[in-house]
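Hey, I was hoping to borrow your eyes for a little while. No rush at all, and the record is pasted right below:
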Amino acid sequence: MRIGYSFWGFLGPGITDTPDGGRSHRRPLVDALIASGHRIVFLQADRDRREAGDILGYDFDSRFTEIDVLFLEWRWPIPGRNTTECGSPGHTCDLHRQSELLHHYTAGRRIPTVIWDKDRRLPADSPWRHHPGVAVCEATLTPSPGATSLLFPVSDQWLDRTAPEALVRANRPLALAYVGNQYDRDDAFDRYFAPAAQHVPHAVAGKWQDTARWSHVTFLGRLGFHDAMALYGMALATVLLLPQRYARAGQMTQRIFEAVLSGCLPLCPAEIRHAERFVPDALLVRNGSDVVRTLRRLHTEAGTETHVRLLADCVSRLEPFRLSQQIKVLNGLLDTVAPAGDAR
């Protein structure tokens, strides 16, 4: 099939001063679709070329090219950014372009459409959820009624080449690190990370602007993708901080495999739905004091066989995110919404 793919972000490492959590999983997913025999044309701006100067060899089209399926990484209104007039300072045109694509392809030409609601921003009463030509995916173990589970994928090669025995021998000067932006995470940060940060060497990378009440926390600001990944390699553990809309649904972000495959143990708040499926019991935490106690125990076990087994257990729990498994889910969905006989 010829898939028109709409996303707002980067396929490569991109630039530092912008949010985009898809950099570790978007390109592997795209390459796997191409390897499955599909042709991909991207329908938003080529930000890799325009902003990062990276020419990656994929096809982009800002017009309305012929496609068999429209695939959207769902965009939502962000006041002051994509809700302003085109050409105004700070404006991004992702939402306007998405509206054009839905109007032209889905509503106008009745092109089968897949919406991947990666941020849980598609309203429950959205008419697109009930449109006969639209399938909705969510990156959760427990999708909403009518939606399909499509998790953030981690490449098979990255999973298969991970060696816990080698990773536990690395020098890790930080007890605790967090990589990610502040968005809707204040409560989780207050409960789990900030109390522990008073007692252990730590660092936080990402866009955190309202930090006055956490003067004891070391905020590094935004780091480039590779530098952020390197931070995991310097830390014994991280805490999986989720917005409540993710936690209630059991939606785990790509941060879990970015951390684990860098040898950084993921401490998971027990209140997160399906927490026991994401991490071993030894890494479940219930408050900041629990985080401190767990870190002290992990410090005494660092480099031991116990540490190796714990990390290996974490790696094994990433199997549901395996790219080859997720691509089967997506290909099955594509065959359902646009049978091969209907492809152009």
Summary: The mean pLDDT is 95.
